[in-house]
Amino acid sequence: MLLLILAYLGGVLTILSPCILPVLPFVFARADRPFARNGLPMLLGMALTFAAVATLAAVGGGWAVHANQYGRYLALAVLAVLGLTLVSERFAEWISRPFVALGAKLTQRSGDEDSVFSAAGLGVATGLLWAPCAGPILGLLLTGAALKGASAQTTLLLLTYAAGAATSLALALAIGGRVFALMKRSLGAGEWVRRVLGVLVLAGVATIALGVDTGLLTRVSLASTSGIEQKLIDAVRPAPSAPAQSAVKAGAPLPVEGEMPSLDGATEWLNSPPLTTQSLRGKVVLVDFWTYSCINCIRALPYVHGWADKYRDHGLVVIGVHAPEFAFEKDPGNVTKAVKDMGVTYPVALDNDYVIWKAFNNQYWPAHYFIDAKGHMRHHHFGEGDYEQSEDVIRQLLTEAGQKNLPGGYVQPNAQGAEAAASGDATTSPETYVGYTKAQNFTGGDIAENISFAYHAPQMLQTNQWTLDGQWTVGSEYAHLDSPNGRIVYHFRGRDLHLVLGPDHDGKPVRFRVLIDGKAPGADHGTDVDADGNGTVTGQRLYQLVRQSNGSGDRTFEIIFLDPGVLAYSFTFG
């Protein structure tokens, strides 16, 4: 209920955002007609269409984005015709002959029995075009939709958001209708008002066609509404504090934190038949939540793998629960290949629907949960580090289970490449997403959402700023390169730079070249490029592009993709 209220209030606040401006002319085009037969059906059509399209965009793949783009083209054509019929009565009469649905029905008076359907059709067209500014509330809803997948709850939340926007638009429509009626009576300006509305409708069509609603207006709007929206989110869901780790002292008993949650709900199991809490009774269990493109998970993996090998014959069962962050990590083929490439031999549960994730009430990658032989959860650890403490927990639980003569020492993996431990520099650049839903520190203009746009990189970047150059389409999760020789530039700080990349849906490899401070990386190249900076994107995974051989100072990173079609997801540093 709190989320529904939050979604509704977020929609109401949309009226304060300049992103609503392009659709206002379409709304006011019927301000002089009875609300019940014109304004209400139009707003309902707009809300329902937006909820349906937004759900598809949040949980669907590239096909959903392309399908919606064709719908937008059709809607632009319909609304352009509406604008012309308002501007010119002669054009309205002419267009009504071959295109009755597009012309005459949209300009009929309220007494006509079809006016309700034409108003609803206008609302559907408006819903296809409306791109509300992605403030904190809408970002929360879209992220949740992408995380949980298509569901009645997803659509209900987005519909509630749209209903909030429709409410504020209805109030604006009521006020606007009275203003227009007053102007007609006092000035006798009915035809003049009609033509002005037609010009405004055509201006709205042009604004949306040029992408201004998802570019400049988005940047302007966030300055006015994001603060209010964030306060609403904080009131409903306070920001979580840093996770507390269980204290582990030599010889001290570990507290019982609860029963081991169910492992039911995995979409598939790798390296093992499905496991249950009952079948694991009598074993000490380590549950590792991970995803294969997460750098923190990758750096923890050598220790998890080492514990599995070291204590397998002494009663330890390690289970990797693969909970995807990006859509491509839901592909069982991608995960199977990653498991093989990373040398993971213990059981892996594919938790594509986050059933196990929610059963554990988990929120982190990586997260380690330690369960004793009686099925009690005794310890947990979130993130990297504290590996010796975690191994002490394993040894203590095995000893409690009656295991003797455990192998001594601690696991000391000789990790290489991306699996090597982080530098420990607290000033490294933060994890940075390229998709617009979570993008931060982008510079050089505005991010145009879901449309192909020509970006131009500025000459200078400040630390932690990044930019695009070339023809890109930025989606919610990734940026897609539409033409060759596109670039991403990042002024970063850190020893390592990683970038999650993938080829287009056709799987065609993409060649690239990396530069550091305008030169080939030489000894500072990562494991996925050579000293000249050359590399190839062949699969959807994390690529290590920079490993500085001396220190972790500020550098300017540049990657030039020689072929089109690459998908760029997120940067991580170490």
From TrEMBL:
InterPro entries reported for this sequence: AhpC/TSA, Thioredoxin-like_sf, Thioredoxin_10, Thioredoxin_domain, Thioredoxin_ResA/DsbE_sf
Any single Pfam family the record assigns to this protein: Thioredoxin_10
Residue spans of biased composition, Low complexity class: 415-428
Domain of life: Bacteria
Positions of the Thioredoxin domain: 248-399
Protein keywords: Membrane, Transmembrane, Transmembrane helix
Listed transmembrane segments: 6-28, 40-64, 70-87, 116-138, 158-180
GO molecular function, a single term: oxidoreductase activity
Record region (Disordered): 405-428
Gene3D superfamilies with a match to the protein in the record: Galactose-binding domain-like (2.60.120.260), Glutaredoxin (3.40.30.10)
Protein name, entry field: Cytochrome c biogenesis protein DipZ
